[in-house]
């Protein structure tokens, strides 16, 4: 294909606005997938993604389209992850495109991630085409969607394409708009190689597979390439594209998008945002904006059954091969034994990893409450990073604790503004901007400590707005804060895995709520159990669980045998998620209770 007949584009949207459905229709219409192969949402590769309806990894499909002008075009659809945890990956995928379809659900209107993604597209000089989807719905309000697109995103909504991805209405208009409105790539095929690495994953047979956008020059098997982040050269074993089946090609040249296989074994050596050059070339300037992704949210993961420690380690190693942004390191806890302290980009990323471990590796896990990264300046002048509350140095050695802040953007129907603002204030939020998108929707921005967001903020937001408020955030900075560590003691023993770091003003109320919660979730034992919350040696709250009076089975004696068996089985089920702390058995919920205390 001559470069002027290539179009590289992606689809951006708030979750559930119809990105995957539209991608499927585009694949259908360009004949990329035969009817027999066609299945729902072909781009979402992992089961987990399919079930949650989210797209975790960016994929890329090459489509051939004969336009109304009679010419054949090569369209590269680059699928971007939609969630805030993966903003950097979205931004790199956008950098590989000249155009983006901005999909807005006609019944929901513009939402948090619509705007966040649109801004990323603007930053990357991507030409946006507004697409209003779900026009088949009775609740579709096209004029309102147009108004919001103009007000919130600043695009001319007169040019919006009206579609129903589900019913297949307007899809040809979308393809024509890609051909006529998205500019073709520019680049020099005979210049030295310069390509952007915008995704990579691990394949058992091929090793690290990298997805690139070539800006200048070409990549072909037999030649070697250099990755600028490491300065290492690697032979090119094969190049190609997905149709969506993987096909090898003789080369990838300026303007094109495709995969490269080099024999690199680990995705840690192929960071997203890296630049590829010809082997030995030191003259190429790296593609701007390269960032190392850093985990921002941490939690401890422990096998319920300590015999599974090695299995857990192996599973983490395997996941790590495919996910360079996830980190883990051995941790030992007095209460929970041997496990790992794991780092994630955000809460969703954490949930995904935990779920994959349990599902794909059949592991039963106990996770501690998520925590953020604290920078601690000691009185000695030394600075330490704390990712585990149990590791916070004694108060007497601490000069200042710095905590990470985010800028949260919240979008909601106006009637929920009051409760949302109350929630943000409770979480130590500092209000920045308040803006009405139209008479029914409002946007408000808050500077928030991440520490208060990892604590069930998202769940609270969803429940108080009946699911109508949406939330997006970006990193701001770290700020000094009056923070304290609260410890929990069960029968006088400190449960390191339950320690948490919290703002001084909230230490009492959170400590109290937590011991009350623990009292509810820890079953009665044969003896009395004291549950206490403490700051240093100062006890701030206490509850007592009375001793068990009768054997649970007693009431079944002489009774129905199946009922008795059921009871025993139920207890066995429960046991799986129990941990022994001293003489006390503590269920998994006890650890999660920390999360829900607010
Ligand atoms: P994504 O999260 O943006 O990828 O959204 P999906 O493509 O997974 O769509 C979310 C939901 O909206 C699914 O249940 C789709 O079937 C539905 N959906 C998508 N497009 C349309 C449409 O044009 N009309 C209607 N009624 N539903 C749609
Ligand atoms: Mg999707």
Automatic annotation (TrEMBL):
<keyword id="KW-0342">GTP-binding</keyword>
<dbReference type="InterPro" id="IPR000640">
    <property type="entry name" value="EFG_V-like"/>
</dbReference>
<keyword id="KW-0648">Protein biosynthesis</keyword>
<dbReference type="GO" id="GO:0003924">
    <property type="term" value="F:GTPase activity"/>
</dbReference>
<dbReference type="GO" id="GO:0043022">
    <property type="term" value="F:ribosome binding"/>
</dbReference>
<keyword id="KW-1003">Cell membrane</keyword>
<feature type="binding site">
    <location>
        <begin position="133"/>
        <end position="136"/>
    </location>
    <ligand>
        <name>GTP</name>
    </ligand>
</feature>
<dbReference type="InterPro" id="IPR027417">
    <property type="entry name" value="P-loop_NTPase"/>
</dbReference>
<dbReference type="InterPro" id="IPR035654">
    <property type="entry name" value="LepA_IV"/>
</dbReference>
<dbReference type="Pfam" id="PF00009">
    <property type="entry name" value="GTP_EFTU"/>
</dbReference>
<dbReference type="Pfam" id="PF06421">
    <property type="entry name" value="LepA_C"/>
</dbReference>
<keyword id="KW-0547">Nucleotide-binding</keyword>
<protein>
    <recommendedName>
        <fullName>Elongation factor 4</fullName>
        <ecNumber>3.6.5.n1</ecNumber>
    </recommendedName>
</protein>
<dbReference type="InterPro" id="IPR000795">
    <property type="entry name" value="T_Tr_GTP-bd_dom"/>
</dbReference>
<dbReference type="InterPro" id="IPR005225">
    <property type="entry name" value="Small_GTP-bd"/>
</dbReference>
<comment type="similarity">
    <text>Belongs to the GTP-binding elongation factor family. LepA subfamily.</text>
</comment>
<dbReference type="Pfam" id="PF03144">
    <property type="entry name" value="GTP_EFTU_D2"/>
</dbReference>
<dbReference type="Pfam" id="PF00679">
    <property type="entry name" value="EFG_C"/>
</dbReference>
<keyword id="KW-0378">Hydrolase</keyword>
<dbReference type="GO" id="GO:0005525">
    <property type="term" value="F:GTP binding"/>
</dbReference>
<dbReference type="GO" id="GO:0005886">
    <property type="term" value="C:plasma membrane"/>
</dbReference>
<dbReference type="GO" id="GO:0003746">
    <property type="term" value="F:translation elongation factor activity"/>
</dbReference>
<dbReference type="InterPro" id="IPR013842">
    <property type="entry name" value="LepA_CTD"/>
</dbReference>
<dbReference type="InterPro" id="IPR006297">
    <property type="entry name" value="EF-4"/>
</dbReference>
<comment type="similarity">
    <text>Belongs to the TRAFAC class translation factor GTPase superfamily. Classic translation factor GTPase family. LepA subfamily.</text>
</comment>
<dbReference type="InterPro" id="IPR004161">
    <property type="entry name" value="EFTu-like_2"/>
</dbReference>
<feature type="domain" description="Tr-type G">
    <location>
        <begin position="4"/>
        <end position="186"/>
    </location>
</feature>
<feature type="binding site">
    <location>
        <begin position="16"/>
        <end position="21"/>
    </location>
    <ligand>
        <name>GTP</name>
    </ligand>
</feature>
<dbReference type="InterPro" id="IPR035647">
    <property type="entry name" value="EFG_III/V"/>
</dbReference>
<keyword id="KW-0472">Membrane</keyword>
<dbReference type="GO" id="GO:0045727">
    <property type="term" value="P:positive regulation of translation"/>
</dbReference>
<comment type="function">
    <text>Required for accurate and efficient protein synthesis under certain stress conditions. May act as a fidelity factor of the translation reaction, by catalyzing a one-codon backward translocation of tRNAs on improperly translocated ribosomes. Back-translocation proceeds from a post-translocation (POST) complex to a pre-translocation (PRE) complex, thus giving elongation factor G a second chance to translocate the tRNAs correctly. Binds to ribosomes in a GTP-dependent manner.</text>
</comment>
<dbReference type="InterPro" id="IPR038363">
    <property type="entry name" value="LepA_C_sf"/>
</dbReference>
């Amino acid at each position: 294909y001559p470069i002027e007949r290539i179009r590289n584009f992606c689809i951006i949207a708030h979750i559930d606005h119809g990105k995957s459905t539209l991608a499927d229709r585009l694949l259908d219409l360009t004949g990329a997938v035969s009817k027999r192969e066609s299945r729902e949402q072909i781009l979402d590769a992992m089961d987990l993604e399919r079930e949650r309806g989210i797209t975790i990894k960016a994929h890329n499909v090459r489509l051939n389209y004969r336009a109304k002008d009679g010419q054949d075009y090569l369209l590269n659809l680059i699928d971007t992850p939609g969630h805030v945890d993966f903003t950097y990956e979205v931004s790199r995928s956008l950098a590989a495109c000249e155009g983006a379809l901005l999909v807005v659900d006609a019944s929901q209107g513009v939402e948090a991630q619509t705007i966040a993604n649109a801004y990323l597209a603007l930053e990357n000089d991507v030409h946006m085409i507004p697409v209003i989807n779900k026009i088949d719905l009775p609740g579709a309000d096209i004029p309102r969607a147009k108004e919001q697109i103009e007000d919130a995103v600043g695009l001319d909504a007169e040019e919006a394409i009206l579609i129903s991805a589900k019913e297949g209405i307007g899809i040809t208009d979308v393809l024509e708009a890609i051909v006529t409105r998205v500019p073709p790539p520019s680049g020099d095929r005979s210049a030295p190689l310069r390509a952007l690495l915008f995704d990579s994953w691990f394949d058992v047979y091929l090793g690290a597979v990298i997805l690139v956008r070539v800006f200048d020059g070409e990549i072909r098997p037999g030649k070697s390439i250099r990755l600028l982040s490491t300065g290492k050269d690697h032979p090119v074993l094969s190049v190609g594209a997905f149709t969506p089946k993987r096909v090898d090609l003789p080369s990838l040249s300026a303007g094109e998008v495709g995969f490269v296989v080099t024999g690199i074994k680990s995705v840690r050596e192929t960071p997203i945002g890296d630049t590829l050059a010809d082997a030995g070339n030191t003259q190429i300037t790296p593609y701007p904006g390269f960032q190392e992704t850093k985990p921002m949210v941490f939690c401890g993961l422990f096998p319920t059954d300590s015999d599974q420690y090695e299995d857990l380690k192996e599973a983490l190693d395997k996941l790590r091969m495919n996910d360079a942004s996830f980190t883990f390191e051995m941790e030992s806890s007095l209460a929970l034994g041997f496990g790992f302290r794991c780092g994630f980009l955000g809460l969703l990323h954490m949930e995904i990893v935990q779920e994959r471990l349990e599902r794909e590796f059949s592991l039963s896990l106990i996770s501690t409450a998520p925590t953020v990264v604290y920078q601690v300046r000691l009185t000695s002048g030394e600075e330490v990073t704390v990712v585990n509350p149990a590791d916070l140095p004694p108060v007497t050695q601490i000069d200042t604790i710095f905590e990470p802040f985010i800028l949260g953007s919240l979008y909601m129907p106006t009637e929920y503004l009051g409760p949302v603002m109350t929630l943000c204030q409770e979480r130590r939020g500092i209000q920045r901007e308040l803006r009405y998108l139209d008479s029914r929707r409002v946007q408000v921005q808050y500077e928030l400590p991440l520490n208060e967001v990892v604590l069930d903020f998202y769940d609270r937001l969803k429940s108080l707005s009946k699911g109508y408020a949406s939330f997006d955030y970006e990193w701001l900075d770290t700020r000094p804060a009056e923070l304290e560590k609260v410890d929990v003691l069960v029968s006088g023993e400190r449960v390191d895995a339950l320690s948490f770091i919290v703002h001084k003003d909230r230490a009492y109320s959170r400590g109290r709520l937590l011991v009350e919660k623990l009292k509810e979730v820890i079953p009665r034992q044969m003896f009395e159990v004291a549950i206490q919350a403490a700051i240093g040696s100062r006890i701030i709250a206490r509850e007592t669980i009375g001793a068990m009076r009768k054997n649970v089975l007693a009431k079944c004696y002489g009774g129905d045998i199946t009922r008795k068996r059921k009871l025993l089985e139920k207890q066995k089920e429960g046991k799986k998620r129990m941990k022994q702390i001293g003489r006390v058995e503590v269920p998994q919920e006890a650890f999660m209770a920390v999360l829900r205390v607010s």
